[in-house]
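Long-time lurker, first post. I've been practising inverse folding by hand and with some scripts of my own, and I keep getting stuck on stretches where the structure tokens seem ambiguous. Below is the full token string for one chain I'm working on. Before anyone asks, I'm not after the true native sequence, just a reasonable design that respects the backbone. If someone could post their per-position residues I'd love to compare against what I wrote down in my notebook.
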């Protein structure tokens, strides 16, 4: 375990303007793991400063998604909007110390500057005539701008990106406090991170440019600088930045629509951008032990739904039968008796499913009412010849004791008597019993359905030899 100089404090700082994005979930996971690895604290701060776009629904979705992924945060969640007074206080401190100034430029003046820069084909960087003015004009509305450094360069030793630098002339005098007294994101983030004692800022690399501006505020305040780690964003399978077009963006969709287990999503997200040798299946305990920033990749990783599905299949096979039955039962609207049957069938069912929807689909035959509906492949199997075979099976099965071994023996005898391979009988039998061509092993299907239901389903489809 590497040692960090200060007790580690990380945070996840989502803006509640939508669901918990899959990229956000990965950021939360990395922060959580880093904190847990170092025995530090992981904090959650809801950045609800944009009141117009923040909703309670989105906050609930974020908390819900984090709980589902078992990313517990230490202490209560913080709400950025509660700290507005504190943000304004810091802006005033910067003003008092000469690191910020009141800017009285009007919108027209700003627009004129921007247009002039455009006409001269040079990048627009605000030049406020108020930068060096200290006297106050009480009546005129103003914003507070940071007096950003103009000389030299700002360097960040980013734990993921390596050494990154900007020339300070490229930084503008950005706004800290708007004319209505509300803080900007740039100021609020810095103040909150400082006040919450955040030591490591681990987030998407879309924030890398902000980091230089945020450092300027931190340095002006003389605060300790956090360690930055800007993680490349997730891309879709086609290599473009993950977007709505790629489908399934919210963590809730992974649970509700795709029927995935949280440990699979979490394991997948961990591997998406971080690696530990060739290990693919990594438990939470191992992840806590192994996670570091050094092995976060520098280039964006591509989302691979197939891989996620396979991983989910693994975790389904690992999951307890009772838990899976609880998750699947509501999808089928089962009563208690049916739940019990589902539970008994689960060891067989879960061996074949990649997600909970497939699991639900594969268990439907247990609860189907007669006469059964057949999928196309199954109905093709029910030829007149195979229906005759079913009647032989019916006669044999009607007389056997209903347990797996006896059932197996009986079905094998029928096949032998007809000089057929077992499969030739098992296929139509499966079709008659389940309506499908894939199912748990045929003897298990018979055992699970029970004698009277099995015989009735076979009878529904069989033809007497002389019919
Ligand atoms: N609220 C910002 C976002 O959701 C994150 C800010 C940060 O991590 O510094 O993109």
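-- Answer (accepted) --
I ran through it position by position. Result:
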């Amino acid at each position: 375990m590497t040692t960090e100089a200060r007790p580690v404090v990380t945070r996840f700082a989502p803006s509640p303007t939508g669901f918990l994005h899959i990229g956000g979930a990965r950021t939360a996971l990395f922060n959580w793991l880093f904190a847990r690895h170092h025995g530090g604290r992981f904090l959650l701060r809801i950045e609800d400063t944009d009141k117009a776009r923040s909703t309670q629904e989105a906050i609930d979705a974020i908390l819900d998604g984090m709980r589902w992924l078992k990313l517990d945060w230490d202490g209560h969640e913080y709400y950025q909007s509660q700290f507005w007074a504190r943000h304004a206080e810091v802006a005033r401190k910067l003003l008092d110390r000469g690191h910020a100034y009141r800017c009285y430029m009007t919108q027209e003046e700003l627009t004129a500057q921007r247009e002039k820069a455009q006409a001269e084909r040079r990048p627009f960087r605000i030049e406020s005539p108020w930068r060096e003015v200290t006297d106050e004009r009480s009546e005129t509305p103003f914003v507070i701008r940071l007096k950003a450094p103009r000389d030299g360069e700002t360097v960040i030793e980013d734990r993921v990106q390596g050494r990154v630098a900007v020339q300070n002339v490229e930084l503008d005098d950005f706004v800290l406090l708007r004319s209505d007294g509300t803080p900007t994101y740039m100021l609020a983030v810095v103040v909150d991170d400082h006040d919450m004692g955040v030591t490591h800022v681990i987030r998407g690399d879309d924030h890398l440019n902000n980091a230089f501006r945020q450092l300027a505020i931190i340095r002006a305040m003389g605060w300790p600088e956090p360690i930055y780690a800007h993680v490349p964003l997730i891309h879709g399978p086609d290599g473009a930045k993950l977007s709505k077009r790629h489908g399934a963006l919210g963590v809730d969709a992974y649970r509700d629509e795709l029927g995935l287990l949280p440990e699979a999503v979490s394991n997948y997200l961990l591997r998406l951008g971080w690696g530990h040798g060739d290990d693919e299946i990594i438990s939470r305990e191992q992840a806590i032990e192994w996670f570091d920033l050094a092995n976060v990749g520098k280039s964006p990783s591509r989302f691979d739904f197939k891989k996620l599905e396979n991983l989910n299949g693994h975790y389904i096979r690992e999951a307890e039968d009772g838990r899976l039955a609880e998750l699947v039962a509501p999808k089928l609207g089962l009563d208690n008796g049916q739940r019990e049957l589902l539970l008994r069938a689960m060891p067989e069912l879960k061996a074949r499913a990649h997600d909970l929807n497939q699991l639900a689909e594969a268990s439907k035959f247990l609860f189907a009412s007669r006469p059964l509906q057949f999928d196309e492949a199954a109905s093709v199997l029910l030829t007149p010849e195979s229906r005759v075979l079913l009647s032989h099976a019916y006669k044999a099965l009607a007389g056997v004791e209903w347990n797996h071994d006896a059932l197996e023996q009986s079905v094998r005898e029928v096949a032998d008597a007809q000089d057929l391979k077992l499969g030739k009988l098992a296929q139509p039998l499966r079709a008659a019993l389940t309506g499908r061509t894939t199912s748990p092993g045929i003897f298990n299907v018979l055992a699970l359905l029970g004698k009277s239901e099995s015989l009735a389903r076979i009878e529904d489809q069989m033809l007497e030899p002389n019919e």
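A couple of notes from the structure itself: Strands lie at 9-12, 41-46, 78-79, 100-103, 143-146, 153-158, 162-167, 175-177, 200-204, 227-231. The pocket of glutamic acid is lined by residues 13-15, 47, 189, 203, 207 (CB under 6 Å). Happy to go over any region you disagree with.
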